[in-house]
Protein 1
Amino acid sequence: MDLDTDSVSSGGSSDGREESDYDAVPLTVDHKPDCDIERQGIEARGGKVRCGTRGVSRVVWKRRRPINGHTVVNRTHSELITEEIPFLGVARSLGDLWSYNPDIGEYIVSCVPDVSHRTLSIEEDHFIVLASDGLWNV
């Protein structure tokens, strides 16, 4: 089911309702790295977004490249040698400490949630579906 549509499909119901009698109202928006506003935030905090496997956009993890168990420094430029790995498929998360950018003192992946409120009506709101992107993005 795609929540971007305005109609919910079903196999029918026991109360005689037609399948078009229900309208879906999306209450949230996924925080995906390829969303323009999320990508802009990631890039503003020093990150990158790259298309990973199976066409899924991912936040790039820029990590120090270990060689023989040691972090290697490029002696001519006095910089750490790093590699970029497309890693996280979401643009916001709690606890992803790997995304800390020491150059600006911020996390590339934001932990700031979107918060909204909706008043439910007994006459109009018959049910609520609570699900993660693991249900919708399969």
Note: The mean pLDDT is 77.
Protein 2
Amino acid sequence: RRSSDLPRRSSDCSVMVWQIPENGLVAPLTEPVVTLEGHSKRVGIITWHPTARNVLLSAGCDNVVIIWNVGTAEELYRLEDQHPDLIYNACWNRNGSLFCTSCKDKSVRIIDPRRNAVIAEKEKAHEGARPMRAIFMSDGKIFTTGFSRMSERQLALWDPSNLEEPMGVQELDSSNGALLPFYDPDTSVVYVCGKGDSSIRYFEVTDEAPFIHFLSTYGSKEPQRGMGFMPKRGLDVNKCEIARFFKLHERKCEPITMTVPRKSDLFQDDLYPDTAGPEPAMEADEWVAGKDADPILISLREGYVPTKQRDLKVNKKNVLSENRPTAVGGKLAAPTAHTSVPSIHAPASHVDSDQLDDVRKKLKSLEMLVRDQGNRIEQLEEQLCKFQNGDD
């Protein structure tokens, strides 16, 4: 998986994978790299395998989970009998050997896709009828969110070797929005966002009772319709940024950054231990053959600098090359002219030197203006924070 490969779930029962050009979009994308068709109803869940190249999980309203090899546009595993009702979410464990799901039947299941088997199941993990979620922790434990019988929102931590009783439970409030958990394995912090809420609560998960420790709450005035989470390597380590969310409003998407105040300008090792990088630890064929591998870690000491992007090429050999063909309906198609990135350089014969100098001067002026405005915005934000915190 690479950060430039963007899968999209769809109401037309298909999954499409799009690839963002290395220097960003210069024109709208009109053709996906590959289209994966296998579900009979709307697809609501997609998630990349954490360590195997081009392995993608999808789950639909047909209660079916499909594991795909995107590099060959084919199904690897089809799990049809494990879920009797709608699947709320799915989450891989750290090395991708298992995944867990939460379901409308109130059960949390741990599934081995290569054996097509449920290896552990907890019925009525949360007794309430509203949606629940389940995610793997890096140490193999499972964190769930849901509702009690009295419709109180709950958090719970489970040991997969003994799902009879939770290790710890916390009740939050009686709001009716489903809780969405976002996990940072590097700091063992879980951020919990409720649909329709205007706050983000965060908790530290430890090995000591009560296991789930409340840290703090971020609050705003407008409710969130949805929330996205930036991977750790996308954060600004120079500003001690530990999390960045993308809050969906009715008409806009707002970035929300969380930072830890530090007086030192040195790299903060405790905030940024080595984290999972974008390079896969193994190929899809190796994972199918039974191999498991932990993520390849990278250091953020100098800030994350991505390596040169290798475009996804869909063929039976599952190789990545620099030339990307388009794909329709899961079948390979020959490269066409409209898939190439248009050049922004005009031929020299059509460029007047005086006009070029004028454009360069205007561009430089704009760059200086943007830089000045950015500095001014930072100053105003600092003043606003002081006023909100009651500082002089």
Note: DSSP finds two helices and 26 strands in the chain.
Protein 3
Amino acid sequence: CWRAVCRLRVTRTSAVPIVPAKPGRNAAAARRGFRYGDGLLVISSPHRAEMQAPSQPQGQSLTPHVYWAQRHGELFLRVDLSDVQKPDVTITENTLFFRAHGHGAKGDNAYEFRLAFLEAVNSEPLFKTTERQVNITVKKIESKWWDRLTKQEKKPIFLVPDFDRWLDESDAETELREKEELEEINKISLESRVRKNSYVTMRTGYLFMYNLVQFLGFSWIFVNMTVRLFVFGQDSLFDTFHVVGDVMNFCQILAIVEVINPLLGLVKTSLVPAIIQVLGRIIILFVVIGSQAEMQNKAAVFAVFYLWSIIEMFRYPYYMLSCIGTEWKILTWIRYTIWIPLYPLGVIAEAVCVVQSIPHFEESGRFTVQLPNPLNISFSFTYFLQVYLIIMFLGLFVNFRHLYKQRNKRLRPRKHKIY
């Protein structure tokens, strides 16, 4: 049996397995595009082109690896592409479009991807190209923590957390506060070298002194009532108004400026909750209690004064320190937490005073207008007090909602969710 060893001549990427050459097969091989000569198998050009290894089709784009992290006000994206010259990065309708030519996981090719964000973002992204990657920063419209990055719940396969920059919500909030504290320190340092505005200085001094005076007044009331309670026991419950009533009257009259301050723009606070609190306490103190000698000996007066003084002992120091840009975390927590049990208890104690005063007002007829009179109108103050009881609890709802929003703003609950 005749045998010949066939050597294969390879051109570029074409490859053909070695085939033993036999006599009489040249004609058949030639019809198929092959020929044998001198022990060598030669591939004709048409078949050689067909057998070349496939390459990446021109114009087809691939998806790069994208790493992401977030802060309360920003999103960070890191695109794993090197040697990128002029990337095309745009945001349209909260969707980021990226297109660039660079060297990625699948070689030197065109890469692109799109991300539809969970919530609204700024339409002008910031990006920086390095030799190894493309860094993209996107500003959030609303500064808050997102549960995920994309609008779709299922995570894209090319998107993974950037653990080099990743922080959970609690750590990000700590970082934000440290940044704010550093900015505040720099601001104070700058202000120490620059002449301060006289108006700002006077406003700060005025607010600081007001809160200091109120703090001292309510602290004196609380200490006095506490000491008398331990010394005299239950007997101290019935002469509270005669002992601390003058100081309480002074503090509540002074509190009228808490309605004037937001009207003048001296403080940034809601006007309605301030009016509800100040007006409500004036009615209880000067009308319900102060105008009826029989009410001044009630134990409910002790409860009202004691609850008021506890709440204000923490509220006014917090505002006082805020005037000079200082914050104690424990004081902040107490100020935005202690009202949760004490505020409803205070309203209940005030309601008890109103209910106990109705028989006395009905008997004395004080503040009641009867017919006939020149104006030809009648007014029953006891009916007014009954309606006022309903208004008190509506005011409780309004103030409770306002304080709850403030608490969430200052003491935001922390969540941790990564996908």
Note: Confidence is low (pLDDT under 50) at residues 1-57.
Protein 4
Amino acid sequence: GAILPSLLLLLPLVAVSQFRASYDSKEGRCYLARQLIRGGLASRGDVGHWMCLVEVESEFVTSARNVITGEDHGLFQISQLYWCDRGDKGCGMPCERLRDTNLVDDIACAKMIRDTPHCAVGGCGLDQWTGYKDLCKNNITRTQAYAAAFRACGV
């Protein structure tokens, strides 16, 4: 089955916990883009795609949780059905760690999802995130706007 959020995630549904960080500012987005590149998740060539994904999945909020199902967590809205709270399967971490301000484990888990040889029904790589596939993948204007903004802040 599909391992990533459904279109319902496109509704505003951010639940906030005590560990909240938002990257929804110019400085915050520049910092986040740098972290995605440093962590090996994004390259300068595709950072605009990853930032679009984060925008549509979590609105740049680290503590985001799908309040409809409660099953998708953090900046990348990673599914607990397949990736967190699974012991040695998936990313091998509690879902709560995806909702804190430490980006290292979120980035590592997103890389694992991106690189998995067992792709979701919807596709491989970024296509495993429904929000990306539906709102970013073919939206050149949106992804190029992010890319230009990051060039302006030295990413």
Note: The CA atoms of residues 71 and 80 lie 5 Å apart.
